[in-house]
Each structure stands twice: as structure tokens, then as C-alpha cells.
Design a protein that fits this description.
- Strand 5 and strand 6 form a beta hairpin.
- The longest helix is centred in the last third of the chain and has 27 residues.
- The termini are far apart.
- The protein has 705 residues and is an alpha/beta fold.
- It has a 5-stranded mixed barrel. It has a 5-stranded parallel sheet with strand order 15-18-21-14-22. A two-stranded parallel sheet has the order 1-2.
- Bound molecules: zinc ion.
- The site of zinc ion has 9 residues, from loops.
Length: 705
């Protein structure tokens, strides 16, 4: 292969080019050789000097790169050892950037740029580059360059390498062979290129030498390299098939370090964005741009707007990272539009991933380390799940309550520290999950019971629940006025969609123009999704709000006031976690109007939203008081008090009987203490669940001492 590629004239052309334009770069890399052994070239720097070279690079990349690397060896620099440098080109023209799903046979063998998200990566493995083979007849050691995946052995004992010339059998001497680090990764299309619910397509990429070990699942990259086909094999016998897989050999990697790079904001866009940010109605208009076909849900939509923009990440004095991303959970009766809201936000938010807690992929919601026979060819492979792929974006997770125990285990870390640690079989990795979470869950009993505390009604541990900044319970509560308004809205929406579809189909409709316009207006977002994405991207890139003293005071005062109010009944309504939540929401609110100052108004908006949330979720249904105990422990303060009383009763009754306290006796004693039968039974259930009491064989209860 090498002999076929070598082209004396081409080497001379490259040598002249390098001497003239890259001499100093080569000299400086020589000082750090072999730690540094790659020289990077901007495509356009070559193109400016000699477009024939770039043309060859695109169409005959193996030949162009092989001879360029030969030329690199010719450059005379003052070092003892001969340099063996990699020639790596970046910044290819747009015409050579291809989307994975559009890769065709005519791209094979050409130099292209493929953009995507790292979905999987194998461990780093040494790969045989030059094999040393010993002849079993004469003992001569022959060297064979390896260019394929399958080991290539000498066909005879080559005389030109000092061998006996006979057909022989050979033994591979690994310690005399040359190896190179290699790694395989899988790239998947970026989620924002998939609007409309298409499944992402993927491609396998081979990395070698200094390109290995630098990428992790969830990284956004542009891989520049050569596409080729790989024969598919089947079964134990590795039967060769006539169909081929598309794979890529990477020649350089460009990382996308910053979020929202893929959302382009032109100077004209910027002008428009700045103008709109001054609109006094900006918050109403933002809300009007979120899922207009879904009726009402004002607080939820206000919160979703703030979630899109997010607060500021911080580092505490002790080094702890405090996230700026806002996590939100919607719990509701079936049919309350939770899933639709999720789907809408998924389409709207830049860098968003939609997943379900019940989906049973191996990587699932977080990440997995698996021994991958198909992709990894038996090697350990790290695969990123939804939280990793949504890094720097939004993870929309439906059926959050349905996820398996393994996912639950890593979800705490994923949501709070915003990273996922994987350690298995000596393979360790830390994957980033810096994303906001928008989750939805169904109540355990099918429907929400507003007389019971929320945490007891959903199948999510309280510790995980407390990771959410905002939890909204969405009730489908019969109410005549809202019902009429809701059904009107639904009907109008449906007709609106129908008309919109008709217009798209035949561009005319029999509705009177005025009515038609009114109906269409009804389902139109105030800002088009594309513009909103630009606005959000602009805000996240350029605006970094800080709380004003006034705003900080307002939040502190509110916090202290509510804490004091609850001192009377000694429950703790707020934890520092809630305080962080106020700050995040206030910062996000400032970002909505592109202000670097989070003012008292932003603080008030945050307080209003948290109050709405606590009113519905964090309130003890019996006393009406805010009670964050509910979120932290799953039981309200009143419930806890009752449980203590019942525990004492069981403890007393249990002393006088070997079979434990009889349920009827407990109920009677509890009634004297002012606790009803149903509440008593509820307390017993909780006490058993907490393992504070246990049931005796004959049905009585004893305390667990
Ligand atoms: Zn021999």
C-alpha cells in the first residue's frame, strides 16, 4: 500500500510548502517531541497557497496525507532523532461537512467532516502496527506492516529480509512488534438536527495514537477523516457478508467547547433580540411562546421560561460546585398534558434530549459500562445515556417514576453534581451531565389525592425528589368555569390546527377570513421557536446576572419570615436547598430581559413561583402550613406527630402481650388520643415501612427495639 501511495513529485511539493510556511511550527514541536507529535493545519491556509493540494486532500486523502507525512520527515530541524509527525487538517469547507444520515457510497474514500455527539467509546487498546514474525524453520525475524483489522502474516520467509525463502509457519513476537494506541468511538447525530422525532443515526470512528483517550461520551465534536467501508461479518465463524458498514478513520478532532455554538445569531438577529428584550411585556410574551395549544398552566409556563434561561453555576468557598440549571418535575393525573409539554420543550430547547424512564436501553438515563461484543469487539465500552447526551442542554424525561434502581442510584449525582461516575472492571470514567431536567411522573394510585401529601403518592424516593427546584402537581379537578374555558380552548385549538393543516395542503379554506385569523392566532406562539432559540442562546452566551443587595435582602427576608411563621408548630419549612432555588430563578428572570442585574423584581418573581409550588406541594394538607419535611422525608409534620403517638401506644400495649398490640386496641387507644381510625391505620403502615414496628405472626404489632 505504502509503495503505491508514494509520489516523489508530491513529496517535493509538500516539502516546499512546509519549508516556506510551517518551518517554525515544526521547529517548536520538535522541542516537545515525542509528547507532541501532531501538526495541525487549517484547510484554508493550504488552500490559499495551493488549491491543488486541498483538492487532492479531499478526493485522494490517503495519498495526500501519506506524502505530506513523508515530507514532514524531510524538513531539517536541529534535533537528534528523526521526527515522525502526524499531518492533521482542521476547518474543512462547509461543502465537505456531511450529516451522518446523508453519507452515501460516493463519499467513501474522501476526506469529510462529520459533526456529532460521542455516544460510546471503548477503552484504549494497543493495536499492532508492525508485526515481528519468527520463521519456525530458520528462526529469521520478519517485519510486516499491518494495515487491516485482520492480522497479516508473511506468506513466505522473505529472502530480502534475510529469511530462508521457504513457505513456513510464523510466530508473532509481541515484544519485538510495534504497537499504537487505538480506540473506537461511536458518533451520533446532534439532537437539534433531529427535530420531528427521527431516531439519530450513528457511525463508528477509529482513533489512533495521540487522538485516543481524549473524548468521553457526551462530548460534541467534529471528526475530520476518511470514510471507508468495512465488510460485515456474521456469527462465530466470522462469515464475510456482501454488505458493508460505513466507518471512519479520524485524522483530526475539533471539539465544540461552548454550549449553543450550533445556534447561529447574526448581527440582524442580535439587533432584534436587544430590541425585544426592552419590551415591558417580555415575560408575558415569553410565556405565550411556550406550548400555546396547552391551556392555562401559567405558573408552569413561567417556570419553563426560566428553566430555558437558567441561573448561574457557582463554586462555594469550600470548592463545592453549585449548579445553575433548574430542575423541574410535573406530577399529574393522566391526560393532563404533561407529556405534551415535555415534547414541546424538547422541540423548543437547544440541545435537548427526550427520554423515558421506562425505556430499557443499557445506558438508559445516565450511563453504563458494558462489555460490548458487537460494537466494542469484546472490549469494555462506556455508553452515555440521556443525561449525558443532554449535557449543556435540557433532558426531558417522561415516566421519571418508572426508571430502574440502577438509574435511580446514579441520578442523584447526575442531577446535583451534574456528573456521572462509572467504575467497572478497572474502567473508570466521569461523564458530564450539566443539563436541566424537565421530568414528568404519574401518581401511584392513578390519580392525585389532594388530601394526601404529594411525595407519598409518587414512586420516587424523597431524597431524589429534593433534587428538583420546582415540583408541580397538575390536577384534573372538575370545575365548571375552567371546564368550559378549557373545552372551548381545546375546540378552538383543534379547529385552528385543522385550518392550519388545510392551508398547508391547499392554501385555501372555507372559514371566514376574520374567524380563521382569530383561530390561527390562538395556536400561534408569540415568538417563533427558531427566534426563541436564538434569544435563549444569546442570553446564555452573553448574560451573567448577579443578585443586587436589594434582591438578596428580599429573598432572605422572605425565607426568615416563613421559617419564623412555622416556629409555632416546630416544623422546618425551608432548607438551604430552597434558598439556592430562589437565587437560580431570580438570575434566570434577569436573563429573560438580558440584564446582568437580578433586581428586586426578579426576586419577587422567584418568590411568587416558589410560593405557588409550595402551596400545592409543600403544604401540610391538615394545617395548611408550608412544610418542607414533606419533600425531605415524605411525611408531613402532622403525620410524624401522629406516628409518634401511635408508636407509644403500640409500645405500651405490646408490653402486656406476647402476640403484640392488637389492631382494635390500638385504634381504641388512638381514638382517646384524638386520632381517627383511618389515620391510625395510615400511621401503622408508615411505621411498618420505616421498620419502627413489625407485624407478629398472629396479626399484632410490636415495636422494633
Ligand atoms: Zn525461514
Amino acid at each position: 500500500m505504502a509503495r503505491l501511495l508514494k509520489d516523489k513529485t508530491l513529496i517535493d511539493t509538500w516539502t516546499a510548502f512546509l519549508e516556506e510556511h510551517y518551518k517554525s511550527e515544526i521547529e517548536s514541536i520538535a522541542l516537545e517531541y515525542p509528547e507532541k507529535r501532531s501538526l495541525y493545519f487549517d484547510y484554508w491556509d493550504i488552500d490559499r497557497v495551493d488549491p491543488k493540494l486541498t483538492e487532492m486532500l479531499i478526493n485522494q486523502p490517503y495519498k495526500a496525507i501519506f506524502n505530506a507525512e513523508e515530507a514532514l520527515e524531510n524538513i531539517d530541524v536541529a534535533v537528534e532523532n528523526k521526527l515522525k509527525l502526524h499531518f492533521r487538517v482542521v476547518n474543512l469547507p462547509d461543502t465537505n461537512k456531511i450529516v451522518i444520515r446523508k453519507i452515501r457510497a460516493n463519499h467513501l474514500g474522501t476526506f469529510v467532516a462529520v459533526e456529532g455527539l460521542v455516544k460510546k467509546r471503548t477503552e484504549v487498546r494497543p493495536k499492532l502496527q508492525v508485526g515481528a514474525f519468527q520463521c519456525q524453520k530458520c528462526g529469521a525475524v520478519l517485519r510486516m506492516e499491518q494495515e487491516e483489522d485482520i492480522l497479516k502474516e508473511p506468506s513466505e520467509c522473505y529472502e530480502d529480509q534475510g529469511g530462508c525463502g521457504r513457505v513456513s509457519s510464523f510466530e508473532l513476537l509481541t515484544n519485538l512488534s510495534e504497537h499504537i494506541d487505538s480506540q473506537k468511538i461511536e458518533i451520533q447525530e446532534n439532537p437539534e438536527e433531529l427535530r420531528g422525532g427521527a431516531q439519530p443515526e450513528r457511525i463508528s470512528v477509529y482513533l489512533e495514537d495521540d487522538l485516543v483517550g481524549i473524548l468521553e461520551a457526551g462530548d460534541r465534536v467534529i471528526i475530520n477523516g476518511i470514510l471507508h467501508s468495512q465488510q460485515r461479518r456474521r456469527g462465530q465463524s466470522q462469515l464475510k457478508l456482501t454488505s458493508f458498514n460505513k466507518v471512519m478513520d479520524a485524522y483530526s478532532i475539533e471539539r465544540q467547547e461552548h454550549a449553543f455554538e450550533e445556534v447561529e445569531v447574526t448581527p440582524e438577529d442580535e439587533k432584534e433580540i436587544l430590541k425585544i428584550s426592552k419590551d415591558p411585556e417580555i415575560y408575558t410574551k415569553m410565556k405565550g411562546s411556550i406550548a400555546p395549544t396547552i391551556y392555562g398552566m401559567d405558573v408552569e409556563k413561567d417556570s419553563l421560561v426560566l428553566q430555558l434561561f437558567g441561573g448561574m453555576p457557582k463554586t462555594a468557598p469550600d470548592g463545592t460546585e453549585i449548579r445553575g440549571d433548574i430542575h423541574m418535575l410535573l406530577v399529574g393525573d393522566p391526560g393532563t398534558a404533561k407529556s405534551q409539554l415535555l415534547a414541546y420543550m424538547h422541540r423548543l430547547a437547544p440541545r435537548s434530549v427526550l427520554a423515558s424512564g421506562s425505556a430499557s436501553t443499557r445506558a438508559g438515563l445516565t450511563a453504563a459500562a458494558v462489555r460490548d461484543t458487537e460494537f466494542g469487539e469484546g472490549q469494555w465500552t462506556i455508553e452515555g445515556g440521556a443525561m449525558v447526551l443532554a449535557n449543556d442542554g435540557l433532558a426531558c424525561i417522561d415516566e421519571f417514576d418508572k426508571m430502574n434502581d440502577e438509574a435511580r442510584g446514579s441520578m442523584h449525582e447526575a442531577m446535583e453534581q451534574q456528573q456521572i461516575s462509572v467504575a467497572k472492571a478497572g474502567l473508570t470514567a466521569t461523564l458530564k451531565s450539566k443539563c436541566s431536567v424537565l421530568a414528568a411522573a404519574n401518581p401511584k394510585q392513578g390519580r392525585l389525592n389532594e388530601y394526601k401529601s404529594l411525595p407519598g403518592q409518587i414512586n420516587i424516593q424523597t431524597a431524589l425528589l429534593s433534587r428538583f427546584d420546582l415540583i408541580f402537581s397538575i390536577k384534573d379537578k372538575p370545575n365548571e368555569t375552567t371546564d368550559t374555558r378549557l373545552s372551548k380552548h381545546i375546540l378552538r385549538t383543534h379547529r385552528g390546527i385543522e385550518i392550519a393543516e388545510n392551508i398547508l395542503k391547499c392554501e385555501k379554506t372555507e372559514y371566514p377570513t376574520e374567524e380563521r385569523d382569530a383561530l390561527l392566532e390562538n395556536i400561534k406562539p408569540v415568538f417563533e421557536p427558531e427566534f426563541l432559540r436564538k434569544y435563549v442562546a444569546y442570553g446564555k452566551r452573553n448574560i451573567f446576572p448577579v443578585l443586587t443587595d436589594e434582591a438578596a435582602d428580599a429573598i432572605r427576608e422572605y425565607y426568615v419570615k416563613v421559617r419564623r411563621r412555622s416556629d409555632d408548630n416546630d416544623s422546618v419549612p425551608f432548607t438551604p436547598r430552597q434558598l439556592e432555588c430562589f437565587v437560580r430563578l431570580a438570575e434566570a428572570s434577569a436573563r429573560v430581559r438580558l440584564s446582568n442585574k437580578a433586581t428586586i423584581d426578579d426576586a419577587k418573581r422567584a418568590i411568587f413561583i416558589v410560593t405557588q409550588y409550595l402551596k400545592r406541594v409543600g403544604t401540610d394538607p391538615e394545617t395548611g402550613n408550608f412544610d418542607i419535611d414533606i419533600l425531605e422525608t415524605g411525611v408531613t409534620h402532622s403525620q410524624q406527630k401522629r406516628m409518634n403517638t401511635i408508636y407509644d401506644i403500640i409500645s405500651n400495649l405490646g408490653k402486656s402481650s406476647d402476640e403484640g398490640a392488637d389492631t382494635e386496641d390500638i385504634v381504641t387507644e388512638a381514638e382517646i388520643a384524638g386520632i381517627g381510625k383511618e389515620e391510625t391505620e395510615d400511621s401503622i403502615k408508615h411505621l411498618v415501612k420505616d421498620k419502627q414496628i413489625f407485624k407478629m405472626p398472629k396479626g399484632g404489632y410490636k415495636t422494633n427495639v
